[in-house]
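Sequence only, no structure available. Ideas?
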Amino acid sequence: MSQKRLSRGQMIVVTTLVIGTLIGVGGLASDIALLYFNWGQLQKASDAAVLAGAGYLPGNPSRAQSTANTYANTDGVKNAEIASTSVAADNMSISMSTTRRVPYYFLPMVGLSSGTATAFAKAGIKQNTWGTRGLIPVGLPCSTTSCNYTEGTEYQLVQAGANGNGGSWNVGPGNWGRLALGSSGANQFLNNLENGYQGALNLSAIDVETGQVNGPTATGVGYRVAMGQAINPQVTTPPTSLSDAPAYDPRLVAVPMIDFTGVTGSSVTVPVVKMAIMWIDSYTSQGSQKTLNAVFLGTISLDDIPSSGGSFGSGSPMLLQ
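Reply:
I predicted one. Tokens follow.
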């Protein structure tokens, strides 16, 4: 055999080995990339799921779990791939573990038929003053002779014109139930409506304001509704009970129940009788029938309300792990 023919044969062997190695390396990279892709899908779905579930903490842990599982399913995670969904003992956080078997296409040549992608996510309620739902600067009439509100019923606040469904219609000449929390003026009213009042609260003497400020009211309500729809898109209709409402949705607000007796159109002080929890639905800003439409979900005892700020849902769901 000539030297030339031998060299050519050696080159063929070497080339074959190199090509085989490159294919093997390429196959290994492809299977690893597939495993990583599936892990990324599981992690994103788990993160979104626990964030959605945490919106119902601490008040409704079972709803938090079911919501998290539903979100995971929607994002492509099968029930069999959800290893666990659990709420902490203090009901302030929720965790989800997911796992997925990923078949390999090249690694079976070396004895590996599949890999396992696993993900873990945890979300809980943490202080977040900027996102607090807070106390809105609107009062709901509640006197010794008239303070009957039905859970799950929608009422009209800051209402002009004829009386609506038990809402805060004109309670005195020029008064429609607006409250001056912190200070007076349209800008302060808008800030309190969007972000919630976070200052000290004197329950025996709150200042009322005259005028309806249609523009700021429409802007503030629109902001809260849009934020709520973005955070909890699954809530398309107002809840009819507090247990069905995501606890940190911007549409869920605290509303002072005010005894407006004696209000005659000037900026006077009024007492808080109770504190209502309501769900903001919409604002009707056209014509004389301007109304802030909100569903009554129950009340809070005044004994549970400290005078310092930040006492109305000053937290929000966020990823912890």
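The chain has four helices and twelve strands.
Hope that gets you unstuck.
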